[in-house]
Predict the structure of Glycine dehydrogenase (decarboxylating).
Amino acid sequence: MTDRRIPLAELEAGVPFARRHIGPDAEARAKMLAQVGYGSLDELTDAAVPGTIRSAAALGLPPARTEPEVLAELRALADRNKVLAPMIGLGYYGTFTPPVILRNVMENPAWYTAYTPYQPEISQGRLEALLNFQTVVADLTGLPTAGASLLDEGTAAAEAMALSRRVGKVKDGVFLVDADTFPQTTAVLRTRAEPTGVEIVVADLSAGIPEEIAARGVFGVLLQYPGAGGAVRDLRPVVAQAHALGAVVTVAADLLALTVLTSPGALGADIAVGTTQRFGVPMGFGGPHAGYMSVRDSYARNLPGRLVGVSVDADGRPAYRLALQTREQHIRREKATSNICTAQVLLAVMAGMYAVYHGPEGLERIARRTHRYAALLAAGLRAAGAEVVHEQFFDTVTVRVPGRAAEVVAAARAAGVNLRQTDADQVGIACDETTTRDRLTAVLAAFGAQADIDALDAATADALPADLARTEPYLTHPVFHSHRSETAMLRYLRRLADRDYALDRGMIPLGSCTMKLNGTTEMEPVTWPEFGELHPFAPIDQAEGYLTLIRGLEDQLAEVTGYDKVSLQPNAGSQGELAGLLAVRAYHRANGDTERTVCLIPSSAHGTNAASAVMAGMRVVVVKTGQNGDVDVEDLHAKIAEHRDRLAVLMVTYPSTHGVFEEHITDICAAVHEAGGQVYVDGANLNALVGLARPGAFGADVSHLNLHKTFCIPHGGGGPGVGPVAVRAHLAPYLPNHPLQAEAGPETGVGPVSAAPWGSAGILPISWAYVRLMGAEGLKEATQMAVLGANYVAKRLEPHYPVLYTGPGGLVAHECIVDLRPLTKETGVSVDDIAKRLIDYGFHAPTMSFPVAGTLMIEPTESEDLAELDRFCEAMIAIRAEIDRVAAGEWPAGDNPLRNAPHTAQALGGEWTHAYGRDEAVFPAGVSAADKYWPPVRRIDGAFGDRNLVCSCPPPDAYEG
């Protein structure tokens, strides 16, 4: 009898996670390698990746662990965090995420694996959810146009500062910040203002703008409402005074407070900013959260970030899309005043759905309960002889206890509550949705007070000013009144998800965007309360688990990239770019090289590079790109020679934006260094390098990374993201820091680039788990498979569509660009036609017209198996055959399946007058009727939506007929 025993050690090892993460198995890899013409992954990458950049040593990372082992490690880290009742405030509050939203949005891959809605026909569900969010913000702030979210409150305020300077009448002067503004917001403003020559002045504006400041000129004013200390005051006098000086007024407002207080718009504000965190989004030690901005009508077309608008499809029916996309940074480049190219979509969807579920009455009830607890707390403290600083407040009470503040805070902490010590004499206490009677009693006891809550309730009036009571209606649209039951809400979320296309449906082959597997094991810990419910300004000894995870991830990323130090604070790739450039600027200034302000950027670079450089106080000089897609080395040397004494930095993406491993990168780095400059390697394409090459070792000084690309944080429909900055040792003293958490960065740092000390800390467990699960060999294998997948697709498509750029051996990196321009010239079939036709085949389109107009950039990622890669290739080949039929005159140029794509189910009804059949329209080659994805709308008219800007929920009668 055959002995079939398997050694126990082998059985105990379990299935390596890399086998789950990487799609093609051994047999599939062999087929793919044969197609490409190589015998092994190592042979392929030896040919594709220049030897001059290759790392000789393997990554020094711990061995890969199994999924149960990694979850156990994360559980142990979570248990080291101490979650106390969060009554610190300052823009971060306890909140209760309705389980129907937690399970069906935050934990649902139909929502978290979607991509930015650049293909709106297959993003209608998420666009409707964002339109809800915009409506919530616009209604509550009393300003008519709101964006689809910004990164956080601090950076939203900084965006408002830049907007005020751009659109206001006063072009010089100072930006005036009220002294009662959140300290982290003021710090972010200072970081952003100094490089661009803006002077920040902080002053007590409770009695108006001081004459000596007014005399200097003021281009913008920022007011906190309610203030950081809790005070609610009438802002109308200072707003009027600011307007008389020609200043643009921004109000940073608490949305929950606005359910019971007069809106910023009604107070005269031009811009409102803030966070939507307390609308059902966990604190997560600081993020991710959806910041917001709303503006008066005249500023709508200057709004930074993304804006969802209402347009019409080919049948004239209402349909949603991103409006005014020409404002994106890859269009405006160095003329942009903002580098924001993303949003916090997943969190904005959660916040919007929180408002949908509760409705205006429910939100007001939460607000009034929150305020009632604060009023009772103040009354109890007064009764015990304590001095409550403000008579009128919403949720935050400031108490003066001379010399006793530390004692009170310590007593509360011992009772399980975190308060805020503002100085030796004052304590701040913030109530929220999670506040309870027991918590109130514990806080009173910490002050040495005792009270009967019911007796206090009977005897205590509210502390909201009567002349600021809200009378304006809000959330009147039916969507905020139709989903009160969990059943109705569940079905609404499902209905919207069904209108979208995400990774849970199929491949999203977007070049430069790396839509890879977001493993469920990686995602699971994000919603654990030990990670989700920690306040970012909690005492640091309560965050031991977080700090261990953060330091561990920083070390892992430093090892992977070859740099010496990493900061995880930037909460988007754009912010990582800015942080890296600020570090370079600070380094030069510290060396006395203040004249080094020139930033060289290849013409093919992503537009955020140029925008970030300008925001960092640099002057952009463009370097030409050669015919092969590489940096034009001759032009680069000429620009270095021309600007030698002024050269600050070269920004270059590697592999290139064209998807090629450039062979001269080490020479380029050396030339810049010889001239005294620094080299910034944009880490957007790091997933083609991990385990093979390290930017910090082949000549770069600084990079930002995209954890939402290479390291598996999901795109979430356009956010959240994390954009850490990694630097060599000489730049480490200039990384971001934070005024409220000394451990967040060096004392000599450039200041915070995000409102929270560690940015979007709440999603860092995802990337930590990914690295831990994969180990050094798994990470390298993932990179090699990404390169193999891209080359496999390129080889299969090359006979049908020319591949525009290749590197050594005719190979591409992790993505390839197919050139459609000759076909368009010959047949009139455009890149748009092919992208929309792919929807009929059940695919999201690749990246359109970037970095080259009229092309598609395809990135398959290592997570897609061979069957899906082949399904995509066969769809593209079938589409080429359809184009040939147009070229042959079989189908008219104006009436063919490509020009009319995508086709909806509704389009099949009634009389059919097209030159092709119904089956050809909706069931092209390889598409199964049983598995058909039906787009909810036909092709959308983008220009119509831009001409007729509608950015909030349209009335129901808009859909009639």
